[in-house]
Amino acid sequence: MYRTHTCGELNLTNVGQKVVLSGWVQRSRELGGMTFIDLRDRYGITQLAFNLETNAELCSEARKLGREYVVQVEGIVTERHSKNLKIQTGEIEIIVDKINILNPAELPPFTIETETDGGEELRMKYRYLDLRRYVMRDALMLRHQIAQEARKYLSNEEFLEIETPVMIKSTPEGARDFVVPSRMNPGQFYALPQSPQTFKQLLMVAGYDKYFQIVKCFRDEDLRADRQPEFTQIDCEMAFVEQEDILVMFEGLIKHLFKEVLDKKMEEPFPRMTFEDAMSFYGNDKPDIRFGMKIHDITTLTKGKGFKVFDDAAYIGGINANDCSEYTRKQLDELTAFVTRPQIGAKGLVWVKWNADGTFKSTIDKFYSEEDLKKWAEMLKSKPGDLILILAGERKATLKALSELRLEMGTRLGLRDKKTFAPLWVLDFPLLEWDEDTKRFYAMHHPFTSPKAEDTQYLDSDPGKVRANAYDLVINGVEVGGGSIRIHDQHLQQKMFKTLGFTEQDAEIQFGFLMNAFRYGAPPHGGIAFGFDRLTALFAGLESIRDVIAFPKNNSGRDLMVDTPSEISQQALEELSIQVKKDHK
User: Fold this and answer.
1) Nearest to 315 by CA among 361, 354, 265, 279
2) What homologous superfamily is domain 12-103 in, according to CATH?
């Protein structure tokens, strides 16, 4: 056999035993007449010891081993003189009496250490090496544990894990589809699913009232740290439920994961917030509520004092940064530079310091009296020693900029501890959003989201007023899950298609199979999908979901390791009846 034990399991109880280990050479150290090698596998590291005096030939052979050599060793477990309690095997070492080189290795392009010297692009190119690092191992082990615990919880609640197709029909769900040409049907294409949405609804029609699936999804959209072209969802659907049933069931799932995976008990119900309040007080629909610093509308308090920036603005909002009156001018200039970056887009920053002695200092002293500034401070619930930061402009854009400023201040003040978790349900989203370019409404979630019963009357007269039976779960400012109660009545679904600008023919071509199913008795149903990659990154305290995916793509959607996407042969193109435009950009 190649090994009797792994490199992570031996301890003092094994002293005196003859063992066989196999793994990779992590590092080698020469100390006088002794050579020490750290042997690594998935389970841990074990120190190997070679004595030049007692076995010069073997010690000389050990000194020739390079990093990442794959070796097998035999030896006796002994107690270490200099213990390393930071590792699981740190109280023992192996006195080696035999080495077998299973495979030599070239020097890797970066160090296989937690703190590596390899940049992200280089590590993605050699991902199979990057995955040897324990930080990556820990992320994948965490991912595995979350998947197993999710399956356990949902199975105990009588959900069935059912696979749905990967090659489906192209349907509009908010992003571009990835398409797959059909050789057997020239000129026709499959689409990769952006989600299993229509199929899980069909499963509800079929009577499988509790479905889940840990499933791959595909969306052709601009990428960032929390997006990949292919990603994984914990996808769930239930029949004969209302919104409250969904929230209770899946709040239970998240509490279960926190308890079993992170040993964090969450006893209290998750707070709930409307979409309108989230936008008004936090500037976005996924607020980080680990800290306060709410946005306040001070428009009415600032008009008519001769300050043109405020007098011309449709909206003026501010946040209160506690205990920051000692912020230097340099720090304030940095904040101004931050909010005026093109991706944030503010025209400038107004600040007001409420000094510890009760006086005020600001950039607009000549326009506003101390009495005026005190009214602002009171509205923002400030106190002496606080710093007020104010932006002005068009409401939507200003709220967005204030949201970014709030998060930046939260980071600067150390209020966004990755070990603190603050979950939140965001409810009552708009059903539709207006696109000024195309002059039409689009579904804010997808076309199957049901409107609130009391708002259905506005679908014809004022569609923008209609709220959805939709909900998102947000943790620490990250949207980790979202879903809705679905439309199960074919007449309401047809009305929804009409509101979205679908002709009857368009609706029939794209969704006729679902509408036909509804004719045979569709139950009330709803569901939710959790971003499995995002949830894992959140649990791991990592910023990018790439760090919890074994083989991710970069920001250009490329897999640097296998060098894809890539061209295919002319013969393959001809078999698929495809012609490529060489000048296409």
Assistant:
1) 279
2) Nucleic acid-binding proteins (2.40.50.140)
DSSP 583: T
- Spatial distance between the Cα atoms of 422 and 270, rounded to a whole number of angstroms: 8
Which CATH superfamily hosts domain 291-412? GAD-like domain (3.30.1360.30)
pLDDT digits (tens, 9 = 90+) for 378-409: 999 999 999 999 999 999 999 999 999 999 99
Q: Distance (Å, rounded) from C-alpha 91 to C-alpha 402?
A: 53
pLDDT in tens, 103-150: 999 999 999 999 999 999 999 999 999 999 999 999 999 999 999 999
Could you give the angle at the alpha carbon of 486 between the alpha carbons of 485 and 489, nearest 5°?
A: 130
C-alpha torsion 434→436→438→444, nearest 10: -20
Write the class of the CATH domain 136-272+422-549. Answer: alpha beta
Q: Which DSSP state fits 12?
A: G
In angstroms, the CA 330 to CA 398 distance is 23
Contact between 391 and 352 under an 8 Å Cβ cutoff? The reply is: no
Task: Give the 3-state DSSP-derived string for 184-228, with helices as H, strands as E and coil as C.
Answer: CCCCCEEECCCCCHHHHHHHHHCCCCEEEEEEEEECECCCCCCCC
What's the distance, CA 226 to chain centroid?
4
- Phi, psi for 530 (deg, rounded to 5): -100, 135
Q: How far is CA 548 from CA 39, 133, 143, 157, 174, in A?
A: 25, 13, 7, 27, 25
pTM: 0.92
Alpha carbon distance 20, 74 (integer Å): 5
CB 518 within 8 A of CB 450: no
Is the Cβ–Cβ distance between 367 and 429 less than 8 Å?
no
Take residue 259 and report the two structure tokens written for it.
Answer: 């308890």
Q: Are strands 272-274 and 423-427 parallel, antiparallel or unpaired?
A: parallel
User: Domains of the chain: which residue ranges?
Assistant: 12-103, 136-272+422-549, 291-412
Answer whether 136-272+422-549 and 291-412 agree in fold. no
